[in-house]
Design brief:
By secondary structure, the protein is mainly alpha-helical. The chain has helices spanning 2-9, 13-18, 26-38, 42-51, 57-68. The chain has one domain (13-68). The relative contact order is 0.19.
Length: 77
């Protein structure tokens, strides 16, 4: 799991932006689920699964990628 997270995090920004298009957005859904599992974050896992079914989420990911360089995901503070 850590290798997948590291591989996605190390992608160039342009590739991450390309992965935000609706047809490829499943990659980010899987990334959120795996990252939540890796952190043993139950709330993050539930939110990640729910976000898989929200079709507009790719726009939010695109904006956060452009502004902050990473996608939004729930992390327990």
């Amino acid at each position: 799991m850590k290798e997948f997270i590291r591989a996605i995090d190390d992608l160039p920004l342009i590739v991450k932006i390309i992965l935000c298009i609706p047809a490829l957005h499943l990659v980010w859904a899987i990334y959120r689920i795996i990252a939540s599992l890796n952190e043993n974050n139950t709330t993050g896992l539930i939110i990640s699964i729910v976000l898989c079914f929200i079709p507009i989420m790719w726009i939010i990911d695109l904006v956060t990628l452009i502004l902050y360089g990473k996608i939004w995901r729930y992390t327990a503070a």
